[in-house]
Amino acid sequence: MSRWSLYTWKRDSRSLRRALPTLTVLAALLTTSAGVAAGATETIERDVLSSGGLTQIELSAFEGESSVRPLTTSALHDAARIAGVKKVVADFSSTLYAEDEGTYDLASHTLSPGADLPVVKGKIPPRLGKNQVILPASAQGTDFTSSLGRSVTFGYTRATGAESGTTALMKLEIVALYDPSWQVDGPGVAYLSEETAAHLAAARAGQKPAVFRAKDGAQSATVVVSHQKQVSGATKALQDDGFSASPVSDRVRQLPGLFGAADIAMRMGVVALALAAIGLGGVRAADSARARLSQFATLRILGSGRPELRRILLGEAVLTGAVAGLVGVLIGTGLSAVLAAPLSDMLGLPISVTDALPGPGWAAATLLLPVIGLALGTLLGSREALRRDPYLTARAHS
After folding, report:
1. pTM of the entire predicted model
2. Residues near 264 by beta carbon (within 8 Å), at least 6 away in sequence
3. What is the mean pLDDT of residues 231-249?
4. Where are the alpha helices (DSSP H) in the chain?
5. What are phi and psi of 152, to 5 degrees?
6. How far apart, in Å, do the first and last CA atoms of the chain sit?
7. CB contact at 8 A, 226 and 113
8. Does residue 308 contact residue 377 with C-beta atoms inside 8 Å?
9. Residues paired with 349 in a beta bridge
């Protein structure tokens, strides 16, 4: 890049500097999307996959879907017999509510294998007992801190007819409290042993637990295999056996809501930025060259060749692309860092500022794409103007 390029880029309003605002906005959007998607991916990998998710397969039972095998007792026994499977834990959903103190209404789930809840008080036992429960530190205006280690009476629904029910009571020891911002299964969830969770779900259906598990079955289940290399084979075997099965690690590629959109926007942004840079380069270079025909004609008459003039335009393109990429990366990184806190609340998992920073690969792409695209567009867009006879051009503008 010649000093002429820097001079004309700074001083001449007709230079390729005019493409700077558009490219900067595109680069900033790409970087922001990369940061948002990186934050979600990093968080899910840390808080979901690090808890054993790489060796887990999720089974689902969709109500009304005849093609999906229900997760009944016999079906889960069949799943447990698949090669490589260590254990199968069924998840039963119900509700626990306050007996007399407080107004909370907590959804209940089976504690999944290797669940890495961010415990703030107490300790999760190696095996959760049927009379034990893990609660959020606070939920719906109730602080459970003072109840840690105590047996608390909870209410739950026992059906007495097709559309009638009564309140039954159950004492559960609160063994651990977790950070309420951790909401993988939703806000305010009580985690129970499989036996207790099934008991609550069966009571709400007005059935005995054994009958409920054999007839209605679980809503979902977690299959744990011995090694992550067995996940693919076990998943296929489960699917061939009629189960709706998918590896837990696939959650990283199925990010919810805004995070999924950010992941798609990030990939589309690469294409958009590259095409915009080439298109802008071609259009702006052609306009710039035509606007400066007399200037270029004079330089050619004084001895400058077309390659030298082309180098001037290429230098302007490189400067414009580099500045657009750099400013875009800085703005996009700042935006993704600012969005870390509100997006953390949306996902229900803690996203730190460092998690929300775009990866080196995406940052490099954002820096290089405007430079390369604008340079290619400049080579194409300036060809016609630089072919003109400099003497005829000078005479026409004299």
Report:
1. 0.55
2. none
3. 88
4. 3-11, 20-47, 73-80, 194-205, 209-215, 231-240, 257-291, 293-301, 306-338, 340-347, 360-381, 383-387, 390-396
5. -115, 140
6. 30
7. no
8. no
9. none
